[in-house]
Write a structure and sequence with these properties.
- This is Iron dicitrate transport regulator FecR.
- With about 300 residues, the protein is of the alpha+beta class.
- The protein folds into 3 domains: about 1-100, no CATH class; about 105-225, Sandwich (Jelly Rolls), CATH 2.60.120; about 235-305, Phage tail protein beta-alpha-beta fold.
- Helix content is about 35%, strand content about 35%.
- Strands 1, 2, 3, 4, 5, 6, 7, 8, 9, 10, 11, 12 and 13 form a 13-stranded mixed β-sheet that branches. A 3-stranded mixed β-sheet has the order 15-18-17.
- Helix 1 (about 1-10) packs across helix 3 and helix 3 (about 30-55) crosses helix 4 (about 70-100).
- The longest helix is centred in the first third of the chain and has 30 residues, at about 70-100.
- It is globular and about 70 Å long.
Length: about 300
């Protein structure tokens, strides 16, 4: 296993490396592989730091004359070439380590994907979502849109950072859910803690705490929620406690791939209950109407939730 992990690590130094999906499959096949790979990657990073911290070479001192100047010249040429090669190697290593190499993973509405990262962390991407990661530094992620559940292996030296909706989230040993959509940014912490905008407001959210930052303004709302409810979508359940029906509709669209919109007269109505994401589409919609106490109509681009006629 160590040999295979080392082989992946060496191959990933090549800028043309493109087998990231195969690498992710290799990691996901055995949890121990991520641990071994992370150990080797950390040792590799330490070597890079040692090279970066190495003192500059001393100025060359001319050697005294010897009986065979040809030998001295040949030795000097070899030594100079070795030093030059070493400097090129160190310089190349530093550039390779620092260069960003972003890539994106996207899911269609109703599709889900689990992403195993090299350090043992995991990202569960919900439907209709897009995340950008970095091959060179998988401790940084950008949720471009949609919903993702982050299960992070904490490292004090290298905090895991998530960018979403113009904000920065920094983990403190954490399982947390992030939604970035038209309404703004929603963060829910199931385990550990997350710091919202550490270089700005620096709001720390512990387990069971939530935060919502509205789009296009500076309003930030804090709240509480059941940690189990935050991650229930992975088990096919949506749990709500006073959530606007407009938000519920977006969750359904993302999870099931059903284009569901809401009429203005019911969008802000709060809903408390549990929605099971199972069964056939038609039967699901039949159950959904009575559960939300709305009427469901077929629209031009999907289904519309409207108020019941009195």
């Amino acid at each position: 296993m160590r040999e295979a992990a080392l082989d992946w690590l060496i191959r990933q130094r090549d800028p043309a490396f493109g087998e990231w999906e195969a690498f992710g499959d290799w990691l996901a096949a055995d949890p121990d592989r991520a641990h071994v790979y992370h150990e080797l990657a950390a040792a590799d990073a330490d070597v890079g730091e040692w090279f970066a911290a190495a003192p500059p070479a001393a100025a060359p001192v001319e050697a005294p004359p010897v009986a065979n100047p040809v030998t001295r010249r040949r030795f000097g040429g070899w030594l100079g070439g070795a030093i030059a090669a070493s400097l090129v190697a160190v310089s190349g290593y530093t550039v390779l380590q620092n260069r960003a190499d972003p890539y994106s993973i996207e899911t269609a509405p109703g599709e889900r994907r689990s992403i195993a990262l090299a350090d043992g962390s995991q990202v569960d991407l919900n439907g209709g979502s897009r995340i950008t990661l970095d091959h060179r530094n998988q401790r940084i992620a950008t949720l471009d849109r949609g919903e993702a559940l982050f299960t992070v292996v904490h490292d004090d030296r290298r905090p895991f950072i998530v960018h979403a909706a113009g904000a920065e989230l920094r983990d403190v040993g954490t399982v947390f859910n992030v939604v970035s959509d038209r309404a703004g940014l929603s963060v829910a912490v199931a385990e550990g803690a997350v710091v919202y905008n550490p270089r700005g407001e620096s709001v720390e959210l512990g387990a069971g705490r939530t935060l919502h930052a509205r789009a296009n303004d500076s309003v930030v709302t804090l709240g509480t929620a059941d940690p189990a409810a935050m991650v229930a979508w992975k088990q096919g359940r949506l749990i709500y406690d006073g959530t606007p029906i407009g938000v519920v509709a977006e969750d359904i669209s993302r999870n099931l791939g059903l284009p569901v919109s809401v009429a203005p007269d019911v969008a802000a109505r709060p809903f408390r209950g549990v929605i099971a994401l199972d069964g056939q589409r038609d039967r699901f919609l039949e159950r959904l109407g009575p559960l939300l106490d709305v009427r469901i109509e077929r629209g031009g681009k999907g289904w519309v939730l409207t108020a019941k006629q009195k």
